[in-house]
Design goal:
By secondary structure, the chain is mainly α. The protein has nine helices and two strands; from the N terminus they run H-H-H-H-H-H-H-H-H-E-E. Strands 1-2 form a two-stranded antiparallel ribbon. The termini are far apart.
C-alpha cells in the first residue's frame, strides 16, 4: 500500500504554481579562486539535475496502473518539472559567471543507465540515493563559497530536495512494509551497498569542494550515512505497516 498520495499531489501542485525564488539584490560576486574550485563540480551536479525524465515517467505509469494510483503519475510529472527547474537555476548561475555547462559525465551516465533498466521501485532507490548525497553536497557548496547568490541558491535546492526525499522515503517504506522480512533485508543490504558506493564516488570526484567545506572522506561518508539512516532505516515495521524512525542525531553543522 502506498502512502497518502493526495498530500504529496497537493504539495507538488502548490510548488509548481508557487516555486521558491531567489531574491533579487543578492550579491553575485564569485571570487576567481572560488570559481576555479567549484566550476567542474557544479557543472556535474547541474547535468545530473537536467533530465527529460522519460524513463522514470514510463516506470511510474506502469506502476500506477498496477496499483490503481493514478495520482502518482501526476506527482512524478511535477517532480520532474521541479528537477528541471533546479537545472535551469544552476545553469543561469553558471552562465552569469562564465562556467561552461557539461553535456556528458561518466557518473551521470551510470545513474541514467541504471534508471533506464529499472522498474519504478528501483528508480526511486536510485533517485533517493542521488538526492540524499546531493543535499549534503549542496550544504558543502554553500559553506565553500562567500557568494551570497550561490549560498541562497543552495538553500533553495535543499529545501525542495528535502521534500523529494520525504516523498521517496515514504513510498519505499510503504513498499517495504508488505514484503517478507528476508526480502526487506536483502533489498536494504543491496541499497546500502549502492548508496555507500555512490557516496564514495561523490567524495572522489568532488573532494576539493567538500574539503573546502571542512569534510574529510570519513566525515562526509558519516553524514551521508546519517541521512540514509534517518529516512530509510525505521526502528520497526509493525503489522499495520506503520514505520517508526530511528532517533538519529544529525548535527546542525552537518558533521563539521
Amino acid at each position: 500500500m502506498l502512502p497518502d498520495l493526495k498530500i504529496w499531489l497537493n504539495h507538488f501542485e502548490y510548488h509548481a504554481e508557487h516555486p521558491r525564488r531567489i531574491p533579487d539584490g543578492l550579491s553575485a560576486v564569485l571570487k576567481a579562486d572560488e570559481r576555479r574550485l567549484i566550476a567542474d563540480s557544479i557543472a556535474t551536479f547541474q547535468l545530473g539535475e537536467q533530465s527529460e525524465g522519460g524513463s522514470l515517467l514510463r516506470a511510474a505509469e506502469r506502476f500506477a496502473q498496477l496499483r490503481a494510483a493514478a495520482s502518482l503519475v501526476r506527482i512524478i510529472e511535477l517532480f520532474i518539472r521541479e528537477e528541471q527547474r533546479h537545472a535551469a537555476l544552476l545553469r543561469a548561475f553558471m552562465e552569469e559567471h562564465g562556467i561552461p555547462v557539461k553535456h556528458r559525465d561518466w557518473t551521470d551516465r551510470v545513474f541514467r543507465r541504471v534508471r533506464r533498466l529499472a522498474g519504478f521501485e528501483l528508480c526511486v532507490h536510485v533517485l533517493i540515493t542521488a538526492e540524499l548525497i546531493g543535499n549534503v553536497y549542496y550544504r558543502a557548496l554553500e559553506a565553500a563559497t562567500g557568494c551570497q547568490r550561490l549560498k541562497v541558491l543552495c538553500r533553495t535546492l535543499v529545501a525542495d530536495e528535502l521534500a523529494h526525499v520525504g516523498f521517496e522515503s515514504q513510498v519505499l517504506l510503504a513498499l517495504y512494509a508488505h514484503k517478507p522480512a528476508a526480502v526487506r533485508a536483502a533489498i536494504r543490504w543491496a541499497h546500502r551497498t549502492f548508496f555507500a558506493g555512490a557516496a564514495i564516488v561523490v567524495w572522489l570526484t568532488h573532494r576539493a569542494v567538500l574539503r573546502r567545506a571542512g569534510y574529510g572522506m570519513a566525515s562526509f561518508l558519516r553524514v551521508c550515512r546519517a541521512q540514509y539512516a534517518f529516512y530509510l532505516e525505521p526502528r520497526a515495521i509493525g503489522h499495520s505497516g506503520e514505520q517508526v524512525r530511528k532517533p538519529t542525531k544529525i548535527s546542525l553543522r552537518w558533521g563539521r
